[in-house]
Design brief:
Elements (H helix, E strand, L loop, with lengths): L1 H18 L17 H4 L10 H11 L2 E2 L5 H4 L7 H14 L16 H10 E2 L15 E11 L4 H4 L8 E11 L3 E9 L9 E11 L2 E12 L28 E4 L9 E11 L2 E12 L1 E4 L2 E5 L8 H6 L3 E14 L2 E16 L9 E14 L3 E9 L4 E9 L5 E10 L19 E12 L2 E12 L10 E15 L2 E17 L5 E20 L2 E13 L4 E16 L2 E12 L6 E2 L13 E2 L2 E13 L3 E11 L5 E2 L6 E2 L2 E12 L1
Parallel strand pairs: 1-2, 12-14
Antiparallel strand pairs: 3-4, 3-33, 4-5, 5-6, 6-7, 7-8, 7-9, 9-10, 10-13, 11-12, 13-14, 14-15, 15-16, 16-17, 17-18, 18-19, 19-20, 20-21, 21-22, 22-23, 23-24, 24-25, 25-26, 26-29, 27-28, 29-30, 30-33, 31-32
Length: about 650
């Protein structure tokens, strides 16, 4: 079986090279995602392919013109404070034009990290869309990826997973001078039989007839703070304490991803009537995976797996219609946005959680706003489901040099629920009240960031109807100690109430606490080599147990030749159980994020090789291996793999011209 998978990968890559010869002249530089690694680390857990990563890639490929971009577009750039954008615009007004990024280093608040992010997402040249449309001028991107575990899962062995163990992914993007974009994707998960188990496409046309934008196929609708509609990705609490509360929604955008269910499919259009008013409307009709019984369903299934009989039975078992209209109005430095949204199913929603609404049709109205000046940014959203409501409101101050602070309050009614919401929360946009404060500042002693979030669940959870509460606190400090060395120290604590069962069977509400301590040391002896060392401790405590965890890792990354990159890491971990698990975000193939938990006792290591051929081809290979000497298998049920070694091979090729 292993040899068959390796043969498939080799044959696939050979075919690609034959079909697309390398005589094409180099046009674009390959994307560099390493700058964003620390910012992603706390945002995405247990991910294999991140939709947020795809959004970042698109932002990197379609850089904004720093000399002409309005702040509404700038706010879509993640991890950069709004006050920085205000200072850039003021600089443009004062001096007319930015000729070199180095000019921005003199502005307050632009440290080395922010400067690197600006150079990633912005360009100096004129990037305005061309008026003449020429079909012969286009950009082409193709991505092919194959991933396989080298030990068979029990479901493969016993036939409950009828397909091969190979996970495959193929994506094509064609862009005709920013006037017409065509995207298509096919994907197969391990254990599925069809190479085309999931397929999707999107066609996007700009400036056609009376419309600014028309999308046919897959799309997402990002609105406000995500209380009704948002894409499948969202950044929550992490070492960037301000950004999660300053959402810059992209509105309606084409969407092609291996996320198989949580997106819209149909038609969407946008029209700008005046410089102050724009309107977007959309209609989506698609089948989604769901747990269906007779004429009702209890939940939507977002895994995308179609392997076992029950998974195949739930495949496209439910018809879903979504429609809506979004109005945007701008006056001076204030934006007002209004949304009306309708969701309809062909079967009745009867959730196991009796707090959630039931029925076939659900309607929403929502008002989102933001207003700003150079030092203050206020934003929020209030959504109404015509029976219950949810609201979140935030204010950010950037009054002092290199100092920002944000305060936020949220209230999500226990009976409020939206199928496509994805906003700032601890456990979903319903049954939650919270108060959040985040601070970041920089001085000669280093960069400081911290947040404190206190929240409660007024109607408890599925185990109790009593109110439960919790709190999170994070402190992060980073300092360049020598010219090529940086140290980072982080402390994070989470305390949550939950329901525990005592020895006599009585259920009581008690707290569980997780504390994590981390030290990072990064050293770059020269431009070709970078080293990073991490030590992290985890301590978990609840009513019946106290557990500890330890993780150490050493990174080595090298760029020995202009087009060759190597990344390697070895990790030692020892935790008492899953409760004291520790996450370690891995630098992976382009478009892939691995942030799986490590627990138990063992060693993990991986190596990634990326080779850029003429800047038109990027070939990547990753091999990873986890060894746990005290276990007999990994996983459970159909996903169980016998033995104490788990290894995985992945290969990818990107073609761009």
């Amino acid at each position: 079986m292993i040899s068959q998978r390796k043969t498939f990968i080799i044959v696939l890559s050979t075919i690609i090279f034959i079909l697309f010869p390398n005589q094409i002249a180099a046009q674009t530089e390959p994307l560099n995602m390493e700058e964003l690694e620390n910012l992603f680390e706390d945002a995405l857990l247990d991910e294999e392919e991140s939709d947020f990563y795809i959004r970042i890639e698109e932002l990197l490929e379609n850089k904004l013109n720093i000399n002409s971009a309005p702040i509404e577009l700038m706010l879509r750039i993640p991890f950069i404070d709004h006050s920085i954008f205000e200072k850039i615009i003021q600089y443009r007004i004062e001096f007319g034009k930015i000729f070199s990024f180095d000019e921005l280093k003199s502005l307050d608040g632009i440290d080395d990290k922010t400067f690197r992010l600006i150079t990633l997402f912005f360009a100096l040249e004129d990037l305005d869309k061309k008026s003449d449309f020429n079909y012969s001028k286009f950009d082409f991107e193709f991505r092919s990826r194959a991933i396989s575990d080298l030990q068979d899962k029990e479901g493969i062995i016993n036939g409950r997973y009828p397909g091969s163990a190979l996970k495959s992914y193929q994506r094509v993007k064609i862009n005709f001078e920013d006037k017409l974009q065509v995207k298509a994707l096919i994907e197969k998960d391990a254990g599925e039989t069809s190479f085309y188990d999931f397929s999707t496409f999107a066609v996007e046309v700009n400036d056609l007839l009376y419309f600014d934008n028309i999308i046919v196929g897959g799309f997402v609708a990002e609105f406000g703070m995500g209380l009704v509609n948002w894409a499948p990705y969202a950044i929550s609490k992490g070492t960037e304490p301000v950004y999660p509360l300053i959402k810059g929604g992209n509105g309606i955008n084409s969407f092609v991803s291996s996320e198989e269910n949580n997106f819209f499919s149909g038609i969407a259009v946008k029209k700008t009537f005046t410089k102050n008013l724009d309107v977007s409307t959309y209609y989506s009709s698609k089948s989604v995976d769901a747990s269906v019984t007779d004429d009702s369903f209890s939940s939507l299934n977002y895994t995308g797996y179609h392997r076992t009989e029950s998974e195949l039975r739930n495949n496209d078992a439910l018809s879903e219609i979504n429609s809506g209209i979004m109005l945007g109005y701008r006056i001076s430095k204030t934006n007002l946005n209004l949304l009306f949204h309708h969701t309809e199913f062909d079967k009745s929603f009867t959730p196991n959680n009796n707090l959630l609404p039931t029925g076939k049709e659900f309607n929403y109205a929502s008002l989102a706003y933001n207003t700003r000046n150079e030092n203050i940014f206020i934003n929020g959203e209030t959504a109404y489901s015509f029976t219950n409501f949810a609201t979140i409101n935030s204010i950010q101050f950037s009054i002092l040099k290199n100092f920002s602070i944000v305060f936020s309050q949220r209230y999500y009614s226990p009976n409020y629920f939206s199928f496509h919401a994805n906003g700032f929360s601890e456990s979903g946009i319903n049954n939650e009240t919270g108060y959040y404060a985040g601070v970041k500042f920089r001085n000669t002693f280093g960069d400081f960031a911290c947040y404190y979030d206190v929240y409660s669940f007024p109607k408890g959870n599925n185990s109790t109807k009593l109110q439960l509460s919790g709190r999170d606190f994070l402190f992060n400090y980073e300092k360049r100690i020598f010219k090529n060395s940086t140290i980072a120290v982080r402390y994070k604590t989470e305390k949550k109430e939950d329901v525990f069962t005592e020895n006599l069977g009585d259920k009581i509400v008690a707290s569980k606490t997780t504390d994590k301590y981390r030290i990072n040391l990064t050293y770059q002896p020269n431009k070709k080599i970078k080293l990073k060392t991490r030590i992290e401790l985890s301590r978990y405590k609840d009513l019946v147990a106290t557990e500890n965890g330890l993780l150490l890792y050493q990174d080595f990354s090298s760029n020995p030749y202009p087009n060759l990159y190597f990344i390697g890491r070895i990790i030692l971990f020892d935790t008492d159980s899953y409760n004291s698990r520790i996450y370690e975000f891995e630098n992976d193939l382009v478009g892939v994020m691995t942030n799986a938990p490590l627990y138990g006792k063992g060693v993990r290591w991986y190596g990634v090789i990326k080779y850029h051929l003429l800047n038109n081809y990027i070939v990547g290979i990753k091999y990873s291996e986890t060894f746990k000497p005290e276990v007999d298998s990994f996983g459970s049920g159909n996903d169980e793999m016998k033995g104490n070694i788990q290894s995985r091979l992945a290969m990818q090729i990107d073609i761009r011209f």
